[in-house]
Design a protein that fits this description.
The chain folds into 2 domains: 160 residues; 105 residues, no CATH class. It is built from no helices and 27 strands. A 5-stranded mixed sheet has the order 12-16-15-14-13, with no helix packed on it. The C terminus is likely disordered. Helix content is 0%, strand content 56%. It is mostly beta strands and 353 residues long.
Length: 353
């Protein structure tokens, strides 16, 4: 297995001080490439910011998305970087301005407080990609008004697409040849979150039913017209034919689990990754230590826990997973030493069909 990519960001300085010494300049996008033998950092443009997700149609055609400013000091813009097989470059992308917040509690907010960020991207081919995210405004130092962002790439440029919902934030998107599903959360009173889902009809996103009893959903993946999402109640929501069913994920003995990433190689073969928060070995001196990685596999209609790697004497988590073939997947996440500084944890995972 060769040519895998992972996107994220790093902090300048100690990464712990807040407010940062240089607001908006502390984060730097990061992309790493796996060539079948090892991971290596790729050179990127000097634009500050973060990258949240990356997707590749071919090893020579990739897109990563994120944002440039997350400290609410100045207006933040969405960030799209593309890879042509030789180098990464920043691509112009749409942003929401003050007009998007007309009629909301954030109407008339002072300039410099609108933060645009793209959270996820999915492609059907080199000439059709979609990205989702949100634009947000902080009110009174704590409340946040959020408007969703949906954009489409037609092979030449990115443009905003029509969305039939408001006061929402989309965190994940997945597409196959027949369906595109975006998921996230919505809040009409700035306090109570409810899950939200939307499907694509032409170039218009239409809000659809979401799994009942959840306050947010994430980690969507689609294969063979069936989509799956992770829920906060440790289950997988299965979307097919316009309706939802649920599959329970396995739990560790203490039932303290958080699931972050999900992918399906086929409709019946999936991998979920996350974190075991039961913290075996946690002590008063190291209250953040010893959380473990989690991997669950769906095969033959059943989810089961598989063994996964961990950094010794560290807080560990897996945040994403990709499977170019069912017998071999790559997971990405982090190990956190007791001081709170994050160290990258990138580990290949071999699966048995």
């Amino acid at each position: 297995m060769a040519d895998c990519y992972a996107a994220g960001f790093s902090f300048l300085g100690d990464g712990l001080s807040y407010p940062p010494v240089s607001p908006g300049l502390n984060e730097r996008p990061v992309v790493e490439h796996f060539n079948g033998a090892r991971w290596s950092m790729m050179p990127l443009p000097s634009t500050p910011g973060i990258l949240n997700r990356v997707t590749c149609v071919t090893p020579q055609d990739c897109i990563a998305v994120g944002g440039t400013e997350l400290n609410y000091q100045t207006n933040g813009t969405s960030l799209v970087e593309s890879f042509n097989g030789h180098r990464w470059s920043v691509v112009p992308s749409p942003n929401l301005g003050a007009a998007a917040f007309a009629g909301t509690p954030a109407a008339g907010a002072p300039p410099g407080q609108i933060q645009n960020v793209l959270e996820d991207v999915a492609c059907r081919g080199v000439a059709e990609c979609f990205a989702v995210g949100d634009a947000s405004v902080v009110l009174n130092g704590d409340s946040i008004v959020v408007e969703p962002i949906t954009v489409r790439f037609d092979g030449t440029s990115w443009a905003a697409t029509t969305l039939t919902t408001a006061l929402a934030e989309f965190s994940d998107i997945a597409c196959d040849s027949e369906v595109c599903l975006a998921v996230g959360s919505s809040s009409n009173d700035l306090r109570t979150e409810v899950p939200i889902a939307a499907t694509l009809s032409g170039t218009t996103w239409m809000q659809t039913a979401a799994p009942v009893g959840e306050f947010a959903i994430r980690g969507v993946t689609c294969a063979a017209t069936t989509c799956r999402v992770l829920t906060y109640s440790r289950s997988v929501g299965v979307y097919s034919g316009g309706s939802w069913t649920a599959q329970n994920l396995p739990t560790v003995p203490a039932q303290m689990t958080t699931w972050y990433g999900l992918t399906c190689f086929r409709a019946t073969q999936c991998v979920a990754v996350g974190q075991d928060n039961s913290a075996e070995g946690r002590t008063a001196l190291n209250p953040l230590a010893w959380d473990k990685t989690l991997v669950a596999i769906l095969s033959n209609g059943r989810w089961s826990i598989e063994s996964s790697p961990n950094g010794a004497d560290m807080n560990n988590a897996l945040l994403g997973v990709a499977c170019p073939a069912w017998h071999k997947c790559v997971t990405v996440g982090y190990s956190q030493v007791p001081s709170g500084l994050n160290a990258g944890l990138v580990s290949p995972l071999a699966l048995t069909p």
